[in-house]
Amino acid sequence: MEPKIVELKEMSFIGLEYYGENKNKEISEMWGRFMQVSNTVPNSIVNGKWYWVCFSEEGDVHPIRYIAGLEVTSLATIPQGMKGKAISPRKYIVFTHKGLLDNLKETYDNIYGKWIPEANLKPVEGLEGLDFELYDNRFMDGSPDSEFDIYVKIH
Q: Structural domain of residue 85, as residue ranges?
């Protein structure tokens, strides 16, 4: 893994939210539902990029919430049943996951358990933490040649 550090401007996302433990593959089903309604997202930046945004809200029992969504220019209009989320300008370390989604846990274990500690970096956690995955034309579901980027907010 050869990560890079980037500074991002403020970004906003609208999509379907998932909050739970994914015991019955609800996340996969949610992506399918979002693909069917993604054309209803107002102010979307149509650029062939899809986002999986991870965040927490005060009072959450589970550690994380997710939005499968698109980047938008404004959160002024959020369709019923969808959620909007903005991220403030911040520094991120970007990793590329290569291969099947089945191996994604190994990538995250390597990021948080090895790479970040060895680099003496600190991820931003709690309500201020907002990591995301960026899916573009490199992502090919079910292919060992698939790739997508993981953005981890750092101090």
A: 4-154
